[in-house]
Amino acid sequence: MISLSSVMSFSGAGNVFSLRGFFSVMLFLCLVFFCFSDNGLAGSSVMWHHYMQRGQENLDSGRLEQARKDFETARMLDPSSMAAVNDLGVVLYRRGDYLQAETLFRQAMSGEKEMFEARVNLGLVLNRLKRWDELLELCDQSLKRQPGSGTALFGRGVALYELGRFEEAVTSLESSIEKGSSRDEYFSEARRYLKKAKARALTGAAVPWER
């Protein structure tokens, strides 16, 4: 059995070098711990941005589980961050967990500084859940905050269409197309709904492709 004393005295110069290396590593670990502790605000901020950026990259690449872990880590680093809450909601939305996503989007909206993006995302959830009255109310509130929001106008048009208010739907959908561009995600869907709304407004009956 090799004794501790023989290990310590194995090589004088080498032992000094090893001890210096050991203390260097310990000093580095202490600095890392300080940076990421509650007192190391700068370090926490850097790591928060790192996980948010990596989470977005994973989200864009369809790696939803990795994105979820990144946003949850960012949320732990800064519990007051509504951006992390909102992005975590986006992950759940894409996974089809609409009710959980709704909870997170509403939480993001309730922050000290409301995220309009979270409001838009909540509209997507209400659309999926076919809660048209709530969607209409949400979009009306959104338009009071941002009157020119093409996304809010589109959501409002969809809600009006599904509620049977076709002429109002036409007006809202036309405005959403006017405010937006072909680069907007909702644009092609708005044109499709507008075509249906115009037909229903004229006839009041179901158009052939809806039967």
UniProtKB/TrEMBL annotation:
<keyword id="KW-1133">Transmembrane helix</keyword>
<protein>
    <submittedName>
        <fullName>Uncharacterized protein</fullName>
    </submittedName>
</protein>
<dbReference type="GO" id="GO:0030968">
    <property type="term" value="P:endoplasmic reticulum unfolded protein response"/>
</dbReference>
<keyword id="KW-0802">TPR repeat</keyword>
<dbReference type="Pfam" id="PF13424">
    <property type="entry name" value="TPR_12"/>
</dbReference>
<dbReference type="GO" id="GO:0000030">
    <property type="term" value="F:mannosyltransferase activity"/>
</dbReference>
<keyword id="KW-0677">Repeat</keyword>
<feature type="transmembrane region" description="Helical">
    <location>
        <begin position="17"/>
        <end position="37"/>
    </location>
</feature>
<dbReference type="InterPro" id="IPR052346">
    <property type="entry name" value="O-mannosyl-transferase_TMTC"/>
</dbReference>
<feature type="repeat" description="TPR">
    <location>
        <begin position="48"/>
        <end position="81"/>
    </location>
</feature>
<keyword id="KW-0472">Membrane</keyword>
<dbReference type="Pfam" id="PF13432">
    <property type="entry name" value="TPR_16"/>
</dbReference>
<keyword id="KW-0812">Transmembrane</keyword>
<dbReference type="GO" id="GO:0035269">
    <property type="term" value="P:protein O-linked glycosylation via mannose"/>
</dbReference>
<dbReference type="InterPro" id="IPR011990">
    <property type="entry name" value="TPR-like_helical_dom_sf"/>
</dbReference>
<dbReference type="InterPro" id="IPR019734">
    <property type="entry name" value="TPR_rpt"/>
</dbReference>
